[in-house]
Amino acid sequence: MSNSFSAPVNRIAAGARLLFSPRNVVFHDGRSVRRMRLGRGAQSAFVGAAAVVVGFAGYGAATATTQAASAAGLTAAPHNEQRMASMERKLAHMQTRVVTIRKSAEQHASRLEQRQALLAAALTGVGDEKKLALATLKIDPTGDRLAAFALAPFGKVEQRQALLANVALDQLQARYQHATQEIRERGLRPERLVKGRKQQAAMGGPLIPAASAEAAADLNADAQFRSLFMTWKKLDTLEQGVISIPSVQPVAHLSFTSNFGVRSDPFRGTAAMHAGVDIPGPTGTPIYATADGVVNHAGRQGGYGNLIEINHGKGITTRYGHLSKIIISDNARVRRGQIIGLMGSTGRSTGPHLHYEVRIDGAAVNPIPFLTTADYLLAAQDRSVGEIPVSTTGPAAQDATGH
């Protein structure tokens, strides 16, 4: 054995001899005294046995502690599960509130956008009726405090829109009154343009219960924005009918050699009814359609010579006579300001001119009021067809239509 290894062993052995050196132990049992000598081997055996006892005692104590801790853990487990379940319920509730607030915010934003579209339509006259109808629904307040706090900024927008709605409603009502006045000045009843030639009392349609979603939407309508929408719809319907009204000049430079009504016949010199106005000009002067419509007739017709008759709807037609050339054909669709022919002197005529008529339900009416159409009706017609404004003069109208 090497010196490096034997030295520690020798020290341990010396310590053991010192610790377990032979000892004399005296016992007194109350009657006599006994002496016992314990050698090194006996002491070593005793210490080993004591160590085993202490070891088992420690193991028992550790086992008891572990069992107690385990029992405590089993007791705490149900409590922890309850806490976890409670936390999960609270989290689910918070998530539900967040979803509710988000949906409410989306609904508010959508309703505000719809109302903004209605306000824009009230000013421009252009809008989709079905989409704008959604703007009439109420914006329901929320009872949730957190949701109310999150949606508070929308409230300011709603207030501004409510103020604008009052202004827009006043403007719509003024425009409607102006439109009806302009229409009456031309010998037309507004009801004709809104409801057509015949007013029928017939009714019908599928049965929709009062408890249906459609009825609920009507009951949930916001009074202010519903009034705004209904006024816009009424004006829009009227302006759609205004398209039928002749509203531009049939020639670029307007003058008259003969007016509407009873006059002295240029051929016989006797009193005769003149169903239109005569507008003079050089042969070949462009003639323009005075309103949108469909050509009823384009060809020769008695004293009119070469005649074009255009049906504008709502029982309104116009006639253009004595033309030197017809540019369009029967059943063709024409636009306001479109060139339809050239001025001439065909038929019963004393010289180049345009014989221009306006008829309502087949009866001739004075064309003069239709030749001095207010700018408002022109603007209304442009809004109805979604186009840029067309000038009241023929050449400007020609340029606008690309001819």
TrEMBL record:
Its cofactor is Zn(2+). Keywords: Hydrolase, Membrane, Metal-binding, Metalloprotease, Protease, Transmembrane, Transmembrane helix, Zinc. One of its GO terms (biological process) is proteolysis. CDD domains: M23_peptidase (cd12797). Pfam families: Peptidase_M23. Residues 273-367 form the M23ase beta-sheet core domain. The keyword Disulfide bond does not apply. The chain crosses the membrane at residues 44-62. InterPro entries: Cell_wall_metabolism_enzyme, Dup_hybrid_motif, M23ase_b-sheet_dom. Its EC number is 3.4.24.-. One of its GO terms (molecular function) is metal ion binding. It is an enzyme of class 3 (hydrolase). PANTHER family: CELL DIVISION PROTEIN YTFB, PEPTIDASE-RELATED. This is Murein DD-endopeptidase MepM. It comes from Sphingomonas dokdonensis. The gene is mepM_1.
